[in-house]
Amino acid sequence: MAETTAPLALVTGATGMIGSHLVRRLLDEGWRVRALVRAASDTALLRSWGLELAQGDLADPPAALADRFRGVQYVFHCAAMVSDWAPLAEMMRVNVAGTRNLAEAALGGGSLKRFVYLSSMVVLGMQPQRDLDETAPMVHTGDNYNLTKIRAEETVQQFVREKDLPAVILRPPYVYGPRDRQFLPRVLGSLQKGEFRFVGSGLQPFSLVYAGNLVEALYLAAVRPNVVGEVLLVTDGRVITRRRMMEIICEETGYPMPARHVPPWLVRAVCPVMEGLAWLSRSPEPPLVNRFRLKFMATPLTYRIEKARRLLGYEPQVDTEAGLRRTLAWFRENRPELMPNTGAAPLRPQD
């Protein structure tokens, strides 16, 4: 019997939370993995797994990336500049031009079977989003991240139409899990500084996605037939309120449950003032209050995943409460500097 060669996948963003979980999943499936990494990236974890590392930058022209794509059958484009304050030109260079360069290089490799692009629910705007599905329009907000992710999706879809790029687009909401550098570190940092406030009641619902669930959807998007050109929303399949999320975080970490609330109207009024002052002062850091953070704190954000279930056979294996507890256990072990300094044991919920 002839030997079969394991699939070869190229992953961008492999040093990040989502990309590293995806790499581990692909290796466990027996795939060969090549990670496109910048020279300055921390690749210690990836090196410990023994996968192939290929230096390169999304800003590199396709010709300069060509050898990285030789023999590549599957591309998972997970890299992006995620920021609520980065300059537009830099975000366009990474998120839009970088996606175009990658798509050109992938097609030039000659072996491409599937290009999976990781987008974001940010393309749906800042307004309340209740039970939205893939028919919801993309909404421009004036925010740089929103604009560049919309442009990147449009670039991928253009390549599908005009160059037969076999692409699938996945849109997750806020993503959390072990090795998270964005979502939970910010929340834990605000608890540690005593700065956390609920905006409104805290009962506004939102959908999240655990890294392991998202990786399952990424994998299925690569191997399932008849999904080229599709856009798919991916969540944990559950809804949680901001208050319940904070209860779980405080139970697991020992932080006291926040008790202070700020009226939403007040935060909405302050946002443009804070953003304007930060912009005028050319602050390199975002203001404490801005529209991006208001969306996270108070806007209803819930989504339907029936299409992913139907086309991918996707079914979340970890619900949000269990996923949060798993993630916080990882933070207790690996990021103790974000835990309370009281030395108190974490509070556990009653069974």
Any descriptors?
351 residues; alpha/beta; Rossmann fold; two-stranded parallel sheet; 15 strands
User: What name does the CATH topology of the domain at 8-176 and 210-235 and 301-317 carry?
Assistant: Rossmann fold
Largest sheet report? 7 strands, parallel
> Number of helical segments?
12
Which CATH class of the domain at 8-176 and 210-235 and 301-317 is shown? Alpha Beta
What do the pLDDT scores average to?
A: 92
What is the rounded Rg?
20 Å
How far the N terminus sits from the C terminus, by CA atoms, comes to 54 Å
Listing every helix as H and every strand as E from the N terminus to the C terminus, the arrangement reads EHEHEHEHEEHEEHEEEHEEHEHHEHH
Which second-level CATH architecture of the domain at 8-176 and 210-235 and 301-317 applies?
A: 3-Layer(aba) Sandwich
User: Structural class of the helix and strand makeup?
Assistant: alpha/beta
The proportion of residues forming helix, as a percent range, comes to: 40-55%
According to DSSP, the number of beta strands is 15
Q: Assign the CATH superfamily of the domain at 8-176 and 210-235 and 301-317.
A: NAD(P)-binding Rossmann-like Domain
What would a concise description of this structure say?
With 351 residues, this protein is of the alpha/beta class.
